[in-house]
């Protein structure tokens, strides 16, 4: 058979080589019929196609029986190596899906860990289930810092209150957070907190948040006499616990002091507001398998808001 150079290996070539390997393992075209599910004449035609494609005789067939040529033994050896490499490649790709590698950087507003619906905690746990080669970096930041980190690529995801969406970011609601007005046990309102009148609260010092809040919260805050500010919710808690100030806190965060009777909600039926905590990521960012796995582990609604 005239020698020829082999061009690009095609899927059809791979099928022919697998068929060739099966014929060799069976020992004849006849024995290979039931294994391959095709007739002996079809096998013979396919073998001829392979030999023409390779430009060499691979086996002797006829009355003397089936036997590999020297070239056929070499082709069998090389094809087995190639098929093993293809299978190894397949397994490695599948392994990558199962065991992700790399860093995951997430920014979270403080005091979110006491939220009873632990979606973020559970999703981070799911990342660890996928393998120990994911390095998780959590930064406790303000909402503005999280949004900046997402825009400049330092963060892959963030969790913050949905108040004023920033262009270029995608906000997906995680859960609703209820905040109420609180005082501490040392405060003059503690004994009558449940029945206190909202219009009488202007006589007491209040702490104002120095961070973005929903419009409803801002409206409630304006009715108070704010003589102090705090950069985060922990700062508000510190000032409330002095006994000198009243201030708004998420109910899940204040619960630890309420249970110990160190805090009490003031006029809880009137002085409360709801805010949406959202999972935020950058719009159009390149594919990130770790972020995708994190998102899959969250119980998210089908709708998102783009800034």
What shape does the CA trace take?
Answer: rod-shaped
State the name of the first-level CATH class of the largest domain. Answer: Alpha Beta
How many individual helices? Answer: 10
> Biggest β-sheet: count, sense, barrel?
8 strands, mixed
CATH H-level name of the largest domain... which superfamily? Periplasmic binding protein-like II
Low-confidence stretches: none
Radius of gyration, whole Å: 34 Å
Q: What's the multimeric state?
A: single chain
Structural class: alpha/beta
The H-and-E topology, N to C, reads as HHHEEHEHEHEEEHEHEHEEHE
CATH topology of the largest domain: D-Maltodextrin-Binding Protein, domain 2
Beta content comes to 15-25%
Annotation, overall tally of beta strands: 12
Helix content: 25-40%
The number of domains: 3
Q: Please state the average pLDDT score.
A: 87
| N-to-C span | 68 Å
CATH-level-2 architecture of the largest domain: 3-Layer(aba) Sandwich
């Amino acid at each position: 058979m005239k020698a020829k150079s082999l061009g690009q290996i095609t899927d059809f070539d791979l099928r022919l080589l697998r068929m060739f390997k099966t014929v060799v393992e069976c020992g004849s075209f006849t024995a290979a019929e039931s294994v391959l599910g095709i007739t002996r004449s079809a096998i013979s035609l396919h073998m001829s196609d392979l030999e023409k494609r390779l430009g060499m005789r691979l086996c002797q067939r006829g009355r003397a029986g089936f036997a590999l040529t020297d070239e056929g033994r070499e082709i069998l050896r090389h094809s087995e190596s190639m098929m093993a490499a293809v299978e190894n490649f397949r397994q490695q790709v599948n392994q990558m899906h199962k065991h992700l590698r790399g860093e995951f950087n997430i920014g979270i507003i403080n005091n979110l860990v006491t939220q009873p619906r632990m979606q973020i905690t559970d999703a981070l746990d799911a990342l660890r289930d996928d393998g120990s080669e994911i390095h998780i970096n959590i930064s406790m930041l303000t909402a503005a810092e999280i949004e900046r980190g997402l825009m400049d690529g330092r963060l892959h995801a963030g969790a913050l209150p949905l108040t004023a969406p920033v262009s270029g970011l995608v906000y997906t609601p995680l859960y609703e957070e209820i905040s109420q007005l609180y005082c501490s046990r040392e405060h003059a309102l503690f004994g009558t907190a449940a029945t206190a009148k909202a219009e009488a609260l202007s006589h007491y010092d209040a702490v104002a948040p120095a961070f973005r809040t929903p419009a409803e919260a801002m409206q409630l805050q304006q009715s108070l006499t704010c003589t102090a500010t705090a950069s985060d919710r922990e700062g508000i808690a510190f000032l409330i616990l002095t006994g000198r100030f009243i201030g708004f806190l998420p109910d899940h965060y204040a619960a630890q002091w309420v249970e110990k009777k160190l805090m009490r909600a003031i006029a809880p039926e009137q002085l409360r507001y709801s805010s949406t905590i959202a999972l935020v990521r950058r719009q159009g960012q390149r594919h990130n398998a770790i972020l995708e796995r994190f998102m899959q582990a969250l119980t998210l609604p089908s709708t998102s808001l783009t800034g």
